[in-house]
Amino acid sequence: MQRVMLSARARDIAQGLEATLQPAVTPKIVTTLFCKNLRLDFRSPVAGDIYQHCLTQLFNSGCF
Fold first, then answer.
1. What is the rounded distance in angstroms from the CA atom of residue 19 to the CA atom of residue 24?
2. Residues spanned by the domain of 53
3. Domain total for the chain?
4. 20, 24, 38, 54: least buried by Cβ within 10 Å?
5. Alpha helix segments (H runs only) across the chain
6. Under 8 Å between Cβ of 21 and 15
7. Can you tell me the distance from the alpha carbon of 24 to that of 9, in angstroms, rounded to the nearest whole number?
């Protein structure tokens, strides 16, 4: 049940990000969000913004 609730929260967060970051995230930018080992590359300002937004939303929802 926890996994289902977490995935529902993740979907809601992703939909909110889509609305706010859509102009900044293009297919070309997506490739710069990750390192060669497929982890987030925090040198990218967009990756940092997405990560911070997710943390804020999870914190505000009471997950942390």
1. 11
2. 2-60
3. 1
4. 38
5. 2-21, 27-30, 45-60
6. no
7. 22
